[in-house]
Amino acid sequence: WSERRYDAYNPDENVRKISSKFFKDKARDWTIGYGHKLTKFDYKKYWDKVLDKKGEGIPLFNNDLNHAIYTSLKKFLKDNRIKLTQYQYDALVSMTFNCDEGFWGWHSSKFKSMRDFVKKKNYTKKGANHTFGLYVFSGGQKLNGLVKRRKREAKIFNGGSYINKDGKKIN
Predict the structure, then answer these.
(1) Which of 61, 80, 132, 139 could form a disulfide with 154 if both were Cys (CB 3.0 to 4.6 A apart)?
(2) Span 91-108, pLDDT tens digits
(3) Is 116 exposed, middle or buried (0-12, 13-18, 19+ CB in 10 A)?
(4) CA distances from 54 to 11, 48, 75 (A)
(5) Closest by alpha carbon to 166, among 142, 143, 148, 144?
(6) pLDDT, tens digit, for every residue of 20-51?
């Protein structure tokens, strides 16, 4: 996960707004912070709390990000002897963080297309655009926010074009 990609995501830069209280996301999962999906252990921890940006919001974001990288994506890449460029890796980290750590597990048929695309190691722009574009649904609905996010991730994967959610290029 490179600094350029983190800058495009970084909560300190207000790229993402923090939710200080529980809310249900589009997939109807309880969420808090910068997109942290609540587990049964989190309910007790955060039930009476309000997250603030400088308090627990950023550490929770960083913890979720590291968990997505180290328990899922890195293991998949190592097990399949896959080497990526930094920008390809950054795009997949972003997608992993958004889709869940189970994204790269063999048991998840939902994400088989992306796993197959990465395993084949034949990365064309058209193939990347198509494959990233498959993952734009949440809770059975096609979401415009996910369409935009996947386009940004595909651009990064295809050549390191780092842009934030407002379409501004990150140098």
Answers:
(1) 132
(2) 998 888 887 767 777 655
(3) exposed
(4) 10, 18, 31
(5) 148
(6) 666 677 767 777 666 677 776 766 666 555 55
125-132: long-range contacts (C-beta < 8 A, 24 or more apart)? 125/158, 125/159, 128/154, 128/157, 128/158, 129/154, 129/158, 132/91, 132/95, 132/157
Structure tokens at 116: 């197959």
The model's pTM is 0.73
Inter-axis angle of helices 86-99 and 144-159, nearest 10: 160
- Residues 105, 73: Cα–Cα separation, whole Å: 9
How far is residue 60's CA from residue 158's CA, in Å, rounded to a whole number? 29
Cα end-to-end distance, the chain, whole Å = 15
User: What is the spatial distance between Cα 108 and Cα 127, in angstroms, rounded to a whole number?
Assistant: 21
Task: Indicate the residue type of 133.
Answer: G
Distance CA(147)–CA(14), nearest Å, equals 21
| Nearby residues of 136 by Cβ (< 8 Å), 6 or more positions away | 142, 143, 146, 147, 150
